[in-house]
Amino acid sequence: MAVLKEGSRPPWIGLAAAVWVQIAAGSAYTFPLYSPALKSVLGFSQQQLTIIGVANDIGENVGILPGIACNKFPPWVILLVGLCLSFFGYGVLWLAVSQTVLSLPYWVLWLALVVATNSSAWMGTAVLVTNMRNFPLSRGTVAGILKGYIGLSAAVFTEIFAMVLSDSTSDLLLFLTLGIPIICLAMMYFIRACAPASGEDSSEHVHFLFTQAASLLLAVYLLTTTILKTILSLNNSISYILVGVMVILLMSPLAIPLKMTIFPSRHKRPGKLDGSSNDLTEEEISSSQTASLLTPISSEADLGSFREGEDISEVDMLLAVGEGAVKKKRKPRRGEDFKFREAIIKADFWLLWLAYFFGVGSGVTVLNNLAQIGIALGVNDTTILLSLFSFCNFLGRLGAGVVSEHFVRSKTIPRTFWMMITQILMIITFLLYASALSGTLYAATALLGICFGVQFGVMIPTASELFGLKHFGIIFNFMQLGNPLGALLFSGLLAGYVYDTEAGKQQGSHCLGPNCFRLTFLVLAGVSAFGAFLSMILTIRIRPVYQMLYAAGSFRLAQASDH
């Protein structure tokens, strides 16, 4: 049986495969591409359409089940569930929009979209949890890269939609129905748990830089080609070539394991822990990561001969504690592994959840209504608007990982500081939208895309640093519930109602002019202000903890290699 050594090819192959799965998992971001067809073909009102958009967000972000499953099953099982959900969910939507089946009830379509986009939660959980555990010393960087690619997925699907599918909504839904399962089947073998490295390596830093540069090049390419397609008349041959180049750029992370195969490193770091991905259970991998990341704080945590994980009844443990054979285990502290029920009673948990809720809830409201916002403000073709948001969303996710990783290592500044800064910028952004000044639509959309992306890039590594990696899957998926709840409150109830009310005044089904969303934007500005306030409180609370952990060497820092 082959042995997978730390720093060897398999973790990097898994990261390269995860890029493709993340693109597939971003199918939920294609809603603005086919939402106009849902409205016109099926005759929905704007409020009905925004409620359908809430189904999109609920499915994408309700990941409690995959969060639990990722600690019990290997990644390929989680991916298999995801591809089945995608096939059946998008298949039903395709049947409705293509009018292959007529008069499907509204509740069936709502449920189908929940099922379709819930595949994103299963796929995203499988690759994110696996890669965070495979690279535990670079959590912010890995989260930024993977969440960056899922942010780019909207631009990838927009490129395919415009250049290959000729703007056909029914063809797009058929592509999602068949294409996502094919990608998952092709990649599931390569996404597996590996023994993490026991220390930092300069080559790993270079590899991450290459991956980040490749993703940035892809983002610039997607934005450029989408604009070219809009302003120029490109024939089919050129369009197919441009899509082919996009596919090659998506494959660029494979250059790292290819380079490691052709030019194997002869340098061996001391203290390597070899292990097979087939022999290591999730608990063993998580335990080894915890041991390498955290130093023991007190001998009181020692249970003597009773090691965690052994089959010991509660009665035996209580008797042993009473007789003095062992000392009662203390509750975990910040930075150690929390069980979900232990994390959910902490103030830090709810401060992070609320700050994330206000940040992404307000951002997703604009995303779900971006096509209607553009049309209301005089932009008939919203393709560029969506691509711009996708590109800047990617920059925010990738940049949040890079910038927060740098400052948390060099200055011990908590990542939530950047959540606070971007939510302050979101106040300005929503006021720009509300003003409807000439030339501000694209600038506001770009700024909002960056700020929206930062919320994801900050929340994920922060949750792992405060509450550990062992139960990270369920903890971060619970955090993500802020997205659909925000969409329900701010998009489904607020934005939809305001839009339909204004459309009624204009005596039509479509609303034109800045008043269609002005009240919504003013409310979202207030929401962002409150989110920034909560982020500030959380940052102040956890700053001393970061200083203590990093000063004590509990997290392996890059600076250690400089001494």
Automatic annotation (TrEMBL):
| Principal location listed in the UniProt entry | membrane
Which CDD domains does this chain map to? Answer: MFS_Mch1p_like (cd17354)
Please name the Gene3D superfamilies in this protein's record: MFS general substrate transporter like domains
Q: Localized where?
A: Membrane
Instruction: Cite the Nodulin-like domain residue spans from the record.
Output: 11-258
List membrane-spanning regions.
Answer: 12-34, 76-97, 109-130, 142-166, 172-194, 206-232, 238-258, 349-367, 373-396, 417-435, 441-460, 472-499, 519-540
Domain called NFD4 C-terminal: residue spans: 345-546
A single GO CC term for this protein reads:
membrane
Domain of life, source organism: Eukaryota
Topology with respect to the bilayer: Multi-pass membrane protein
Give one Pfam hit by family name: Nodulin-like
Sorted keywords for this record are: Membrane, Transmembrane, Transmembrane helix
Task: State the InterPro entries in the record.
Answer: MFS_trans_sf, NFD4_C, Nodulin-like
Q: Which family does it belong to?
A: Belongs to the major facilitator superfamily. Phosphate:H(+) symporter (TC 2.A.1.9) family.
Annotated PANTHER family = MAJOR FACILITATOR SUPERFAMILY PROTEIN (PTHR21576:SF97), UNCHARACTERIZED NODULIN-LIKE PROTEIN (PTHR21576)
Q: What is this protein called?
A: Nodulin-like domain-containing protein
